[in-house]
# Entry
Amino acid sequence: MSLSFGREYLAIPGPSVTPDRVLNAMHRTAPNIYEGALVDMVDAMIPDLRAVARTKADVAIYITNGHGAWEAAAMNVLAPGDTALVLSTGRFAGLWGMICERLGVKIEVIDFGTAQALDPEVVRARLARDTGGKIKAVLAVHVDTATGVLNDIAGMRAAMDASGHDALLMVDCIASLGCDRFEMDAWGVDVMVAASQKGLMTPPGLGFVYANDKAQARQNAGVSFYWDWRNRVKPEMFYQYFGGTAPTHHLLGLREALNMILEEGGIEAVWRRHDALARAAWAAFECWGQGGPMAMNIPDAAQRSRAVTALSLGDRNGARLRRWVETNGGVTLGIGLGMSAPGDPKGEGFFRLGHMGHINAHMMMGALGVIEAGLVALDIPHGPGALGAAARVIAQA
Ligand SMILES: *Cc1c(COP(=O)(O)O)cnc(C)c1O
# Structure
């Protein structure tokens, strides 16, 4: 017998659960891309895309995933021979740096490890030493999806200002947009990169690069035609928004996802829901950890993302638990990405719970309930009271 039949739940940190409303909006034949409803819809969507990032900056939409958006952002402002400072708090900033390196950009990495947020003071001190202004951009992730860390982007801007350095602040919000509070303008972010398949609840395939005036003024003259954001942010023809044929169905899906965000009460309401559900999960993880090996990767709750939580469970228990809850409970957890421990080079002692986008209290309680069943079934020691603790957080919210 298996208890996994019924609606499955993909609780990995992206792609996230696609709402039925988004799928249904996409379920039609392609519309005209030269005039009419689609053209009007995209024009009207730009203000909503600005609102979710709390910015007046322009946004370029690309037919790509996060990696493509990384490359687009890099190419528009960084030229071969430029130097970028990469702030590593897990896996993703380093990958962005690798993409820059392939473009001929020199990379300097500051590694803050895998269990804590970046330290703005360290960055301030490094920039203060760059008196010749060699560093053109500082690259950081808002949320690192491998470690579950949430970086203090406002603090980073303050540190950059304090150093008197005028490098661009470029931030990857691929995991965090639509989950964790992010204020592009108030926090002084120059370039922000996002993608459709996480907090924005739309299938993978759209990448977004937001760029303020300062960033646009630093256009790299050598940018390739396809990644150039100039036409895309101020197009004379609809065709130019996308460098060719529009991604018709993704746009229809994204429109519906943005409608859902607006109906919920706007981005602040979405942040509050993610906050309550993340805290419910953390309360459960704390309880289980008190009687066994489970531990959240980021010990300081103030540095934890509301989009994803990474955990260690020791031995090969992360992989065992994932397999059990998927086979027996219909819940798919995330692998331990880029994490390893002595005796566990593949990171099988780790797992991640994605809690981004289209999730509600019953999905969170269901996922936690099945995890508890897995801990029992696999004889993995764990403390009591986890589900009650999670329920109390939800009740109080
Ligand atoms: C998912 C993710 C990426 C990569 O996005 P892809 O669409 O897989 O290319 C980059 N950065 C962060 C923080 C992510 O969460």
